[in-house]
Design goal:
Largest sheet: none
Shape: elongated
Number of domains: 1
Helix content: over 70%
Distance between the termini: 46 Å
Number of strands: 0
Radius of gyration: 16 Å
Oligomer: single chain
Number of helices: 3
Structural class: mainly alpha
InterPro entries: 23S_rRNA_IVS_sf
Strand content: under 5%
């Protein structure tokens, strides 16, 4: 198993789900479902990054440090 195999698998999963969503009909009823699925799928990436102790340059914690008094 490669060192970052989980990252590649998660990325591929996200791409597949988003591709599937793009093929479905776009209407008002599906909009809520599309948004929820998109948020759920993409949150996997952030969960893995958090567990590994990595930080995005524009994360919530970074923005809090800027505005702390």
């Amino acid at each position: 198993m490669k060192n970052y195999d989980i990252h590649e698998r998660i990325f591929n999963f996200i791409v597949e789900v988003l591709s599937l969503l793009n093929k479905l009909p776009k209407n008002l009823t599906n909009l809520v479902v599309f948004n929820q699925i998109t948020r759920s799928v993409t949150s996997n990436c952030f969960t893995i990054v958090r567990k590994e102790g990595l930080e995005f340059p524009y994360s919530y914690e970074s923005s809090v440090d800027i505005f702390s008094f």
